[in-house]
C-alpha cells in the first residue's frame, strides 16, 4: 500500500495530519493506529493521577488515573486524541488492561485509605475480558478490590443497557465500586441509577462551571446532590476551579471534590510526593495550582 507507506515514512510531516484532525483519511488513520499499538509496546503510555479530596475537610482520599501518550515527537498527547481511535480499532482492550494493571500497581504502593479511580469506556464494558483483566491486576499486585472504583459514562449505560446490569453486577461482586462519570451530560434516565446500583455520581464539570452564572445549572447540581443523598450514593463534583464553587458545594453537602483548584493531574512521582507529604490540616496544606 503505497499511500500508507508514504504517510508512514513522511516523518514529522505525518503528525501534522493528526493535528489537523484529518483521521478520516484511511491511510493516515491506519498509521495512527499502528503508532498507537507500538506506543503500548514501547511503553510510551503513562498514567497521571489527579487527587480527590473529601469535603468539607479537603482531606486527600484518592486519585483518578488519567492516561497520556508520551509521544517522541508530539509531546504529551491527551486521551481525547487517542482513546476514541483506540475504541474504534480494537486497541482499547489492551490499553485498558495496561491502565488497569498500572493503576493497581501504583495503588498498592500507597496507603490503604486511598482509593484509585479508573476510567472504563463503553467498548471495554462490552468486552468479556474486562473482569478478567481487573481480576488479574488485583491479584498480581495483591490489591483489595475495595481500593478500586471504575468510572463509566452514561453513554456506556445507554448503549449497553441489556447486558450491562449483568456486567456491573459481576464487577461489584469482585468488590470494586462503580462511579457514573460526567453525570448530566448523557441520556440515561434516573431509573438507571436504581437499576444499576452505582456507588457514586460524578457531577460533570460543565454544571460546576455554570453554577454561579446559570440558575438552571445550579438547580440541577442541588437536585442531583439531594437525590444522591436520598439514594445513599456518594458524590464527586468535577472541575472545581474556584473557591466560591468549592464553598457552594460544601454548603450543599457534596462528598468529594476534584479540580484544578485543589490539584491538577500529576505525574506518578509528584502524586507519590503528595501522598507522602506530611500534611498539616487546613487549606494552606493543599498543593498549589501548577
Ligand atoms: P474524565 O474521566 O471526566 O476526566 C476528567 C478530565 O477533566 C481530565 O481530562 C482532567 O484533566 C480534567 N479536569 C480535571 N479537573 C479539571 C478542572 O478543574 N478544569 C478543567 N477544565 N478540566 C479538569 P483528561 O485527562 O484530558 O481526560 C479526558 C477524558 O479522557 C476523561 O474524562 C476520560 O473520559 C478519558 N480518559 C482518561 N484516561 C482514560 C483511561 O485510562 N481510559 C479511558 N477509557 N478513558 C480515559
Ligand atoms: Mg473519569
Ligand atoms: Mg469525569
Ligand atoms: Mg468530565
Explain the overall architecture.
The chain is of the alpha/beta class. The protein is built from 13 helices and nine strands. It has helices spanning 2-8, 13-19, 26-42, 79-89, 92-109, 122-126, 130-140, 154-174, 190-196, 205-209, 215-230, 243-251, 268-276; strands at 45-54, 59-71, 75-77, 115-119, 148-153, 177-183, 200-203, 234-237, 256-257. An eight-stranded mixed barrel has the order 1-2-4-5-6-7-8-9, surrounded by five helices. Helix 8 links the parallel strand 5 (148-153) and strand 6. Helix 5 packs parallel to helix 7. It starts with a helix and ends in a 14-residue tail after the last helix. Ligand C2E binds next to strand 2, helix 4 and strand 6.
Annotate the secondary structure layout.
Layout: H1 2-8, H2 13-19, H3 26-42, E1 45-54, E2 59-71, E3 75-77, H4 79-89, H5 92-109, E4 115-119, H6 122-126, H7 130-140, E5 148-153, H8 154-174, E6 177-183, H9 190-196, E7 200-203, H10 205-209, H11 215-230, E8 234-237, H12 243-251, E9 256-257, H13 268-276
Parallel strand pairs: 2-4, 4-5, 5-6, 6-7, 7-8, 8-9
Antiparallel strand pairs: 1-2, 1-9, 2-3
One magnesium ion binds next to strand 6.
Q: What pattern of helices and strands is seen along the backbone? A: HHHEEEHHEHHEHEHEHHEHEH
The biggest beta sheet reads: 8 strands, mixed, barrel
Class of secondary structure makeup: alpha/beta
Rg (C-alpha, Å): 20 Å
Portion of residues in helices?
Answer: 40-55%
Distance between the ends = 46 Å
- If you average the pLDDT, what whole number results? 87
Number of strands: 9
- Strand order across the biggest sheet? 1-2-4-5-6-7-8-9
Q: Name the bound molecules.
A: ligand C2E, magnesium ion
Low-pLDDT regions? 1-17, 281-285
Strand content: 15-25%
Counting DSSP H or I runs of 4 or more residues, the number of helices is 13
What's the shape?
Answer: globular
Domain EAL: 29-279
Organism: Aureimonas flava
Keywords: Membrane, Transmembrane, Transmembrane helix
Protein name: EAL domain-containing protein
